[in-house]
Amino acid sequence: MNYKSEVMSTGTVTTPVKTKAPGEGLFSAKNRKLIYDPLNDNNPITVQVLGICSALAVTVKMKPSIVMAISVVVVCAFSNLIISIIRNSIPNRIRIIVQLTVVAGMVIIVDQFLKAFVFDVSKQLSVFVGLIITNCIIMGRLEAYAMSNKPWPSFLDGIGNGLGYGLILIIVSIVRELFGSGELMGTRIIPESVYKMGYFNNSLVIMPPMALIVVGVIIWIQRSRNRKLIESK
Amino acid sequence: MSLNKLFFMDYVNTFIKSVFIENMIFAYFLGMCSYLAISKTVKSAVGLGVAVIFVLAVSVPVCYMLENYVLKAGALAWLSPGFATVDLSFLSFIMYIATIASITQLVEMVVEKYAPALYQTLGIFLPLIAVNCSILGGALFMQEREYATLGEATVFGFGSGVGWFLAIVALSAIREKIRYSNIPAPLRGLGITFIITGLMAIAFMSFMGIVI
């Protein structure tokens, strides 16, 4: 309940922005780009190299990854929004501590919410919900975007980057769950008959190192399709 | 005598466990962002590694005291019996991050005052440590594993830092060498670094069989 009222109260804060900038629609091309861009060209994980820690540790199964992705979208969007609203009154010297406090507040709300409604997933994620605080995506976007932009674009930027992060998280978890345990979301995908023919689950994929290699391969595929992202030698 | 020896062995075990078996990078992927970003040369990797060891070794025991004398259920009982039922554990994230951010700030000021040469080397990396997940991760693992004594928590913090240091120095050395090899263009830079780290982590998995 607390969580919902928080969303609603911050939701009402966004509305004055609409009246402030009457010339520009809420979902103008520029604003839509804020959401699409982090999905590919400016992906937080594969291009900006942010928020890798949690991306690797929670991707053994799809369910915790989806929960994690949603949590990061929520925290990123609302901390961007709050910091953007108060950005002009934050003294520059202590801005990191102010940002961390806002993010930590948001993470506590998400953590309590997960504990109340999806306790088993919250147990699986263990310390990684807490580690959203130090997830570099959130701090990075606060520093790079929310500190110098209006609340509504910052909110969209938060959603976009959260989704870009979630996209990679879900791709990695699909690969790992499918090859590691032959299931998706807990339901069996690879039929029994295949196992009878001599197929085995690849238990290496469940181990943490394979997450790194899967992300490495995703980067390889993405950059060979999107040549402008290739790093110069 | 034998009890004393046993006590000492506990510390050694915790240290070895936190350096090799539960390595921050290879087993939990904590502190990955700065690990990947600042491992281009050995020199800067050593600087950041030392700073991480220092901050972890200081902040984990401080968080341990905070946990056991303020935050845990019933931890405030030393203040007055009336507080025996108070449970502030939901505040742990915000308390830990505030502790870590202020310790980082403190370390930065102390190093600037007493070791200007080291400060010059670490410079930009010091404030970055506040948002390094391995520090908060260390504090949260300390909370989750419920270490028995302050000494053990300190050894755990120091050991985790050493493990992180080893990992980043090893990766930066490999990256310095790999600059001369012919890597497929889309894999250059970030991609190959991920795969190297994965292979290193597979090597570190061999420590997992060790039971201490």
Summarize the structure.
By secondary structure, chain A is mostly helical.
Overview of this protein structure:
The complex is a heterodimer of chains A (233) and B (212). In chain A, strand 1 and strand 2 (187-188) form a beta hairpin. In chain A, strands 1-2 form a two-stranded antiparallel sheet. Chain A starts with a helix and ends in an 8-residue tail after the last helix. By secondary structure, chain A is an all-alpha fold. Chain A contains twelve helices and two strands, in the order H-H-H-H-H-H-H-H-H-E-E-H-H-H. Chain B has 212 residues and is mainly α. Helix content of chain B is 69%, strand content 0%. Chain B is built from nine helices and no strands. The longest helix of chain B is centred in the N-terminal third of the chain and has 30 residues, at 42-71. Chains A and B meet through helix 3, helix 5 and helix 12 of A and helix 2, helix 4, helix 7 and helix 9 of B.
Secondary structure topology:
The complex is a heterodimer of chains A (233) and B (212).
Chain A: H1 2-20, H2 29-36, H3 52-57, H4 62-85, H5 95-117, H6 119-125, H7 127-130, H8 136-144, H9 151-181, E1 183-184, E2 187-188, H10 192-196, H11 203-206, H12 208-225
Antiparallel strand pairs in A: 1-2
Helix pairs in contact in A: 2-9, 4-5, 4-6, 4-8, 4-9, 5-6, 9-12
Chain B: H1 2-21, H2 32-37, H3 42-71, H4 92-114, H5 116-122, H6 125-128, H7 133-145, H8 150-178, H9 190-204
Helix pairs in contact in B: 1-8, 3-4, 3-7, 3-8, 4-5, 4-7, 7-8
